[in-house]
Design goal:
The complex is a heterotrimer of chains A (338), B (276) and C (290). With 338 residues, chain A is an alpha+beta fold. Helices cover 27% and strands 31% of the residues of chain A. Chain A has 2 domains: 4-232, Rossmann fold (3-Layer(aba) Sandwich), CATH 3.40.50.300; 239-327, Nucleic acid-binding proteins (OB fold (Dihydrolipoamide Acetyltransferase, E2P)), CATH 2.40.50.140. Chain A has helices spanning 42-50, 92-102, 107-120, 136-148, 166-183, 194-200, 218-223, 228-233, 244-249, and strands spanning 4-13, 16-26, 31-35, 57-62, 65-66, 77-80, 154-158, 186-191, 203-208, 211-216, 240-242, 254-257, 262-265, 273-282, 286-293, 298-304, 314-319, 325-327. In chain A, a hairpin with a 2-residue loop joins strand 4 (57-62) and strand 5. The radius of gyration of chain A is 24 Å and the shape is globular. Chain B has 276 residues and is mostly helical. Helix content of chain B is 74%, strand content 0%. In chain C, helix 1 runs antiparallel to helix 13 and helix 3 (63-94) runs parallel beside helix 8 (154-179). Classes of the chains: A alpha+beta (338), B mainly alpha (276), C mainly alpha (290). Chains in contact: A-B, A-C, B-C. At the B-C interface, helix 1, helix 4, helix 5, helix 6 and helix 7 of B face helix 1, helix 3, helix 4, helix 5 and helix 6 of C. Chain A: Keywords: ATP-binding, Nucleotide-binding, Transport. Chain A: One of its GO terms (cellular component) is ATP-binding cassette (ABC) transporter complex, substrate-binding subunit-containing. Chain A: It is found in: Cell inner membrane. Chain A: GO terms for molecular function: ABC-type maltose transporter activity; ATP binding; ATP hydrolysis activity.
Chain lengths: 338, 276, 290
């Protein structure tokens, strides 16, 4: 079924190496998210798997079969693009049927499959419309419909939600997750949004400058980031990094504490750091404080519920000792001393 | 614009614009009017503007005396033939430059453009001699070949700028959907590019229809298109105004109509995309 | 951004166009260069011999060449002046709200679609003819002696004909450029207190500078090769008064059958055109994103 294995895959454009040798194993039925900042090579990696780009060296196996030299059309994969890439001159029905037409599926069978996909995606009433007459969310669903009807070994998603507005994005996120539950097909999903990665993935692959920084389940990455990059990338607001003397007392070059792993008080206590409130953001459910601290660093602190502190107030923050991450001079996580 | 345009100003501007426009258009209008006069009325002094005996006899005579229709068909065959042949060569070329750009693509485009800058007299003699030896002088085939080649850079350029506006992701989607290169071009690219291809076709029909260097130099009687046919009116002066006008009206009418439809694309095509 | 497979296909699909144009450019051009060094007259076949730069010396020292060169320059510059200034004014006029704008535009653009031979003959016979032309009628109506345009001012007459054909082109392109001017810029300058004239010179004209340059360069390329208008009106005369380089080469090679001399003239024309072309190509190249 939909297992995908990359061994020693590299990609260079001219003399620039975009992806240094990379190994990755994707199991059947897994929802894998490639996440990283823009330019980290995540989309290139997806396009290599799709076959839209050639690998410079290395082997890609799909379903145990060497697919490195197979053209995209015959890899048995389906892709959903960021711009949806719908065919503007075809109706929704024709768009969804296109891959079936290309593979020579019988017209009657194709019609049935299109109808079934449209039903799943709530597109039945729109089948005769052109893509230009649809909303962003509907276009997205057509693109997904076009992928579903092929019954592919795996689905590839290239930042599919980034053109949608915030509310719609949350809905579509749920719909795609639901789809994965229903189909149980391998899905590879590229995003720069760590929230999407955390909420959807079985397995997250964090990429940075073409390297895989870490592979793991969302909570593994959250709880045990392998290095400062992953620690800073996963979680929102971002993890606080503190260097210098404070870090040395913990036996590290840098320590990291997530905003939610602080206790905040207006009275001094043992081991607390003194700080002053610069800005406080009240979200209702949470309050974010941006502080400058006596230890010479800016800190972001998250506190559950309402907390009525304002600009200039003096506060005392205490990190949760068990959730302090320690990093060495290279940014690698130092094994826990607990 | 939130500017309040006073009616008086608009009246003045409108009148001025109409006067200027009619002045510019007047030679064409005058030609059309003259084509409906008798030869005597055409040279009458003072000339009458609208109040003359309208007649269609010039149109009939032009056809009878000089086989107008044959020259008209030559023009149609030459302009349409060279444009279609050009499109056939240019669509794949523009496809590859727009969607599979290489390091050299820009150089190739600029080089193609540079061939358009070559003055025709620079190659007139060899082409004339080659055509003479190959028996292509005064043939439609010969003109189709030459006009295809001289307009090919414009066709490639226009198509290229239109293709560039089609997102490459859509072609990649087709590839993922199992389309071969052939069905990618036939089922996805071409239908999407139809408006662009159509305006390229129109502009090049216009250019080929009006081309008057090669058509004059490479044809005599047999394959002469309308440009060369009209030129034959240059010698017998005086008594041929009405017939000249009738022939001219028929020669420019189809292109005027096509031209009015494609005026927007004209700018882009003739400036190689430098002005849009 | 593509695979080796699609790159191969691309090269395969690009090659017909490239090969054809390469052939079109290189084969005849090198033949012209070769002929230009030969004594080669079609009336004396089999007498071809290598003569070095003799053809060039004859062509360049021929008084006709100098006259034709001056005529070419006067023709190009004259038409450019009329079309660029007239085109700018027309574009400004047509950019205003005008009743029946669509029709006005169509009327103004029309001359561009008239084939050169038609336009030349219509002007020659129906307007400029000293007996039956409309201008002669008008002169007589106000009691003036009719003016024989083509005999007494042949080059000027040809400039008028050609300018009439190219004015729509300049107008259309300058209007397109004008319409892409950001209205907010105009409004900002109004708030800053600029009057209509300073607005035109400081905002509108700089915005149109690019389009004007493009118009000048493209028209120059075409105007250097004006041919049909001369052929059907004056035949280059009287004398060489309305002969340009293109026409001179035509006369020499196809009327006098002097292939060698004509070829030398052709190469001179190519060199002249290249000087303009280099500037034009830079302009367009700068604008080209691949």
């Amino acid at each position: 079924m939909g297992t995908i294995t990359l061994s020693k895959v590299t990609k260079s454009f001219g003399s620039t190496e975009v992806i240094p040798p990379l190994d990755l194993e994707i199991n059947d039925g897994e929802f894998v998210v490639f996440v990283g900042p823009s330019g980290c090579g995540k989309s290139t990696l997806l396009r290599l798997i799709a076959g839209l780009e050639d690998v410079s060296s290395g082997v890609i196996e799909i379903d145990g079969r060497d697919a490195t030299r197979i053209p995209p059309a015959r890899r048995g994969l389906a892709m959903v693009f960021q711009s949806y890439a719908l065919y503007p001159h075809m109706s929704v029905a024709k768009n969804i049927a296109f891959p079936l037409k290309m593979t020579g599926v019988d017209k009657k069978v194709a019609d049935e499959k299109v109808a079934a996909a449209a039903k799943v995606l709530n597109l039945t009433d729109y089948l005769e419309r052109r893509p230009g007459q649809l909303s962003g969310g509907q276009r997205q669903r057509v693109a997904i419909g076009r992928a579903i009807v092929r019954e592919p070994e795996a689905f590839l998603f290239d930042e599919p939600l980034s053109n949608l507005d915030a509310a719609l994005r949350v809905n579509m996120r749920l719909e795609i997750s639901q789809l994965h539950q229903d189909l149980a097909t391998t899905m590879i999903y590229v995003t720069h949004d760590q929230v999407e990665a955390m909420t959807m993935a079985d397995k997250i692959v964090v990429l940075h400058a073409g390297h895989i920084e870490q592979v793991g389940s969302p909570l593994e990455l959250y709880n045990n980031p392998a290095n400062m990059f992953v620690a800073g990338f996963i979680g929102s607001p971002k993890m606080n990094f503190i260097g210098g003397e404070t870090a040395s007392t913990f036996g590290a070059d840098t320590i990291g504490v997530r905003p939610e792993h602080f206790a905040i008080a207006t009275e001094p206590s043992d081991g607390a750091w003194e700080a002053t409130v610069d800005v406080s953001e009240h979200l209702g459910s949470d309050t974010f404080f941006h502080l400058h601290s006596g230890i010479g660093e800016r800190l972001t602190i998250r506190s559950v519920g309402e907390l009525g502190l304002k600009h200039g107030d003096k506060v005392y923050v205490t990190p949760d000792q068990s959730r302090i991450h320690r990093f060495d001079a290279n940014g690698k996580t130092v094994a826990s001393q607990r | 614009m939130a500017r309040a345009v006073s009616t008086r100003r608009q009246v003045a501007v409108s009148i001025l614009a109409w006067v200027v426009a009619l002045a510019i258009f007047f030679p064409i209008l005058w030609t059309v009017l003259t084509s409906f006069k008798t030869e005597a009325e055409a040279i009458a002094s003072p000339p009458s503007f609208l109040f003359f005996d309208w007649t269609l006899e010039n149109y009939g005579e032009v056809q009878e005396r000089s086989d107008y229709f044959r020259h008209f068909m030559n023009s149609v065959v030459i302009s349409l033939g060279s444009t279609l042949l050009g499109l056939l060569i240019a669509i794949p070329a523009a496809w590859s430059m727009a969607f599979v750009p290489a390091r050299r693509t820009k150089d190739v485009l600029m080089w193609m453009l540079s061939t358009k800058m070559l003055p025709p007299v620079g190659v007139l003699i060899p082409i004339y001699l080659m055509f003479r030896d190959l028996g292509l002088l005064d043939t439609r085939t010969g003109l189709v070949i030459v006009l295809t080649l001289i307009n090919l850079p414009i066709i490639v350029w226009m198509l290229y700028t239109y293709f560039k506006e089609i997102p490459g992701e859509i072609l990649e989607a087709a590839r993922m959907d199992g389309a071969t290169l052939w069905s990618e071009i036939v089922h996805v690219l071409t239908p999407m590019a139809v408006p662009g291809i159509a305006s390229t076709l129109l502009l090049n029909v216009i250019l080929a229809w009006n081309e008057a260097f090669w058509t004059l130099n490479l044809t005599a009687a047999k394959a002469a298109p309308l440009t060369a046919f009209i030129a034959s009116y240059s010698s017998p002066e005086g008594l041929f105004y009405a017939k000249l006008s009738a022939a001219s009206t028929m020669a420019i009418a189809p292109i005027l109509i096509i031209g009015w439809f494609s005026q927007k694309q004209l700018v882009r095509g003739l400036t190689f995309g430098a002005v849009k | 951004m593509a695979t080796a497979h699609s790159r191969t296909a691309a090269r395969f699909m690009l090659s017909p166009a490239v090969v054809l144009l390469l052939g079109w450019m290189i084969i005849p051009l090198s033949m012209t260069i070769y002929f230009s060094f030969l004594r080669y007259n079609l009336l004396m076949p089999g007498m071809e011999e290598f003569t070095g730069f003799t053809n060039y010396r004859f062509f360049l020292t021929d008084p006709a060449f100098f006259e034709a060169l001056v005529n070419t320059i006067v023709l190009v510059v004259g038409v450019l002046l009329i079309t660029v200034i007239g085109g700018t004014l027309l574009a400004l006029l047509l950019d205003q709200p005008v009743w029946g704008q669509g029709v006005v535009r169509i009327l103004v653009i029309a001359p561009f679609f008239v084939m050169p031979t038609v336009s030349a003959l219509v002007w020659k016979n129906m307007f400029m003819n000293p007996v039956n032309g409309l201008f002669a009628h008008m002169a007589k109506a106000v009691g003036l002696e009719p003016f024989d345009f083509l005999a007494q001012a042949p080059l000027f007459s040809i400039i008028i004909m050609v300018a009439w054909q190219w004015l729509p082109f300049a107008t259309l392109i300058l209007l397109t450029a004008l319409q892409s001017l950001d209205r907010e810029q105009i409004e900002a300058s109004e708030i800053d207190g600029a009057g209509p004239f300073s607005r035109f010179f400081y905002i509108v004209l700089p915005h149109m500078a690019r389009a004007i340059t493009v118009v000048i360069l493209i028209q120059t390329i075409f105007l250097l090769s004006v041919f049909a208008e001369i052929l059907v009106t004056t035949n280059g005369g009287p004398g060489y008064a309305s002969t340009n380089i293109t026409y001179l080469v035509y006369v020499q090679s196809l009327l006098q059958y002097d292939v060698g001399g004509g070829s030398a003239g052709g190469i001179v024309a190519v060199i002249l055109a290249n000087i303009v072309a280099i500037f034009l190509m830079r302009m367009i190249g700068k604008n080209l994103e691949v």
